[in-house]
Design goal:
The structure is a single chain. This protein is of the alpha/beta class. The chain has one domain (30-158): Diaminopimelate Epimerase, Chain A, domain 1, CATH 3.10.310.50. It is built from 6 helices and 4 strands. The protein has a 4-stranded mixed sheet with strand order 1-2-3-4, sandwiched between helices. Helix 1 crosses helix 3, helix 2 (41-58) packs parallel to helix 6 and helix 5 (123-139) runs antiparallel to helix 6 (143-158). The chain is globular and about 35 Å long. The termini are far apart. Residues 4-18 have low confidence and may be disordered.
Length: 159
C-alpha cells in the first residue's frame, strides 16, 4: 500500500510539473510583479526596497505578484503554486522562499511557502497574517498597505 501511495504521488507530481511547463506564465520582473496595477511606481519601489534588504540580511527570497489572469487554471491556489516553481523562487539548496499572491480580480490572497520555509512559517501563521494584516487593508481598497503589513509580519516571523 505504501509503495502504491508513493507511486501515485510521483505520478501526480510529474503530471503537475508537465502541466506547469506547458503554461505560459508571466515573466518575473523582480520582487514586485504587479500585473493588476494595484501599486503606484513609488509603492513598488518601497516594497522592492523592503524585500531586497530582507533578502540581503537573511538570504531568504520573497516575491509578490498581483494577478488578473490565471488561464488555463481554474483556481488561484494551483496557479500560484506552479508560478512559484516556474519562477524558481525556492532556492534549491535552502528550500526557502515564499510568494505572496494578491488579486483584486479574484478577491483572494495567498502565501505560498517552500518546504524549508514551511517549517518556520506554517499554514496557521500564514492564515493569521492574511486575515489580520493583509485582508483588512485590502478590503478598504488599500492593497499597498495590506501587502506591506503582510510583508512586515512575515519578515518578523521568518527572521
Amino acid at each position: 500500500m505504501n509503495k502504491f501511495i508513493k507511486t501515485l504521488f510521483l505520478l501526480l507530481l510529474v503530471v503537475g510539473v508537465s502541466n506547469a511547463q506547458t503554461v505560459k506564465f508571466p515573466l518575473q520582473k523582480g520582487f514586485i510583479n504587479d500585473y493588476e496595477g494595484l501599486f503606484t511606481p513609488q509603492q513598488q519601489i518601497e516594497l522592492n526596497t523592503l524585500i531586497a534588504a530582507f533578502e540581503k540580511q537573511t538570504n531568504r527570497e520573497i516575491a509578490v505578484v498581483t494577478l488578473n489572469n490565471i488561464q488555463p487554471y481554474s483556481n488561484v491556489s494551483d496557479y500560484s503554486k506552479d508560478l512559484s516553481y516556474n519562477w524558481s523562487l525556492y532556492k534549491e539548496e535552502l528550500q526557502s522562499g515564499l510568494l505572496i499572491v494578491v488579486s483584486k480580480t479574484f478577491r483572494t490572497v495567498r502565501i505560498m511557502t517552500a518546504y524549508g520555509t514551511h517549517q518556520l512559517i506554517q499554514d496557521d501563521v500564514c492564515r493569521n497574517i492574511i486575515n489580520k494584516e493583509i485582508i483588512p487593508a485590502c478590503s478598504q481598497g488599500n492593497y499597498f498597505l495590506g501587502t506591506k503589513q503582510g510583508l512586515l509580519a512575515l519578515m518578523r516571523e521568518w527572521k
